[in-house]
């Protein structure tokens, strides 16, 4: 496998995925705005780290929803966030083909995926790996129909599920669901 992969989300200094992809010939760019003490760096010949996050809009002072992960890394001055189109421009990769796009962004994947669908960027990506999240309070109830629509739009675009695993924790007062899903773009392969 040779290509370029982008990984967004809870990296938390765990570069196993990145290193494994680089070992298969991919160049990998990893992004995690919550790693406050980690500057941008080149981790290896093919692995690069940037302390910014992916969003559906460019924002230098993004304040995430507080959860157990964010409590450990408070966004005192906010986190720098960028749309994928902006990130590709910053890296000088506007014309480069992405092979894999991987996101674990704790509930924000709904808005980001909608932006990727609306912009047309996702249609050119052969593999899309995402962790879908639903929490009691996030996304807000009024946005859940949009999340469901986004989920089905991914399939409608030609992405076929090839691996999934999930977690469900629920009670009368709380809910947490997450599903790690890997898609293959049937229209690109």
From TrEMBL:
Membrane spanning stretches: none
Which top-rank group of organisms is this from? Eukaryota
Task: Indicate the segments annotated as coiled coil, or none if absent.
Answer: none
Which part of the chain is the Methyltransferase domain?
Answer: 19-159
PANTHER family according to UniProt = METHYLTRANSFERASE-LIKE PROTEIN 24, METHYLTRANSFERASE-LIKE PROTEIN 24-RELATED
Query: Could you identify this protein by its name?
Result: Methyltransferase domain-containing protein
- Provide the species name: Pomacea canaliculata (Golden apple snail)
